[in-house]
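Email to the structure team, subject: tRNA pseudouridine synthase A model.

Hi all, the expression group asked for a predicted structure before they design truncation constructs. Nothing fancy, just the tokens so they can compare against earlier work. One-line instruction: predict tRNA pseudouridine synthase A, return tokens.
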Amino acid sequence: MPRYALKIEYDGTPFSGWQRQADRASVQGAVEAALARLEQGLPSIAAAGRTDAGVHALGQVAHCDLTKDWDPFRLSEALNHHLKPHPVAVVDCARVPDDFHARFSAVERRYLFRLVSRRAPLVHDRGQVWRVSHDLDLAPMQAAAHHLLGRHDFTTFRASLCQAASPVKTLDALDIEDMPYPGGREFRFHVRARSFLHNQVRSFVGTLERVGAGAWTPEDVKAALEARDRAACGPVCPPGGLYLAGVGYPTDPFAQE
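Reply from the structure team: attached below.
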């Protein structure tokens, strides 16, 4: 069966997450339903990351096995037609080797978190960013983020229901951008690692927001990390500002030949 990689963008607001569920809307369920309109009896698709309810994606990657030898462009067009009216789009599609696996072949995952600081409620970005009504200071947040880089036991920043075999992970990057936003400022957190624990990015951002607000110091974040205790974590921020921005592979499956 020919194997195809799909680069998928979605608004996670109406979904219970990526993973298919029997009684709730999911992104996987929407994509598989669209595939079923093209070919019946297909196996389940696999994705690079199982995003939670309300989390968005700019570059989720999934793979599927089809019986027909589709032209990748025509496959993406057909899927986008059948995905309507869901807020899901296939933005790229490529034929890949049989041993390509969207999850297990990935060597890095990149997340973006958008945080807006302004007094006024959000209108156009509601559900797409996390808004706080107070000012934030970039410098101490970035200083605190440096304490999280590298290989650590991230028990403090791991959800209690996380099913990962080990809390030890290597964080490759956590960079914060500060930019103008109508009526305030937007802070963009760019996070990169091979893999993440459940709620790890949202735990990072919720804790760093406390530093930017002046309630914590960068040294408090270092102490929280070293405590290896979930109770030492700051607040876990809401999912609406989180995006799976991209997935890295040894060879880019979507690179133009």
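The two ends are 22 Å apart (CA to CA). DSSP finds five helices and ten strands in the chain. Ping us if the truncation boundaries need rechecking.
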